[in-house]
Design a protein that fits this description.
It is extended and about 45 Å long. Among the domains are: 33 residues; 43 residues, no CATH class. The protein has a two-stranded antiparallel ribbon with strand order 1-2. It is 72% helix and 3% strand. It is mainly alpha-helical.
Length: 123
């Protein structure tokens, strides 16, 4: 079998190694795709700013489309309240927990916060 090299990984090598670990041979396409598409941290300030601007543009466009679909005061108010609540939750997840509840916790994303909550319930 000739190796297919994409992104620095030889497909058959990844499949062979994973099959050896799991003890069975099955389709490893999803694992290979995950390894191939893994992203590095974004560190360039220009790209970080562009990412922020794109979030803003997508958010504004989705808000405009939602309100254009249902142009009522009630829809606008509920939409605004939901945005405000999600922002406050995000602030709570990364700042309040870290600064006031558990100083040993370091926020690294909402999934890390979910893991933190699950680990705290077990203890």
């Amino acid at each position: 079998m000739a190796p297919t090299v994409v992104g620095g990984y030889a497909e058959f090598e990844v499949r062979r190694n994973l099959a050896a670990v799991s003890g069975e041979r099955r389709d490893m396409g999803a694992f290979w795709l995950y390894k191939r598409c893994r992203m590095k941290d974004l560190t360039d300030p220009r790209w970080i700013k562009l990412k922020g601007i794109l979030f803003l543009v997508v958010g504004v466009l989705s808000a405009v489309l939602l309100l254009a679909d249902n142009p009522s005061f009630k829809a606008g108010l509920l939409f605004g309240i939901s945005i405000w609540c999600f922002c406050r939750f995000y602030y709570f997840a990364f700042y309040v927990i870290e600064k006031y509840v558990d100083p040993s916790y370091r926020f690294s994303g909402l999934w890390s916060f979910v893991g933190y909550l699950l680990r705290r319930k077990k203890n």
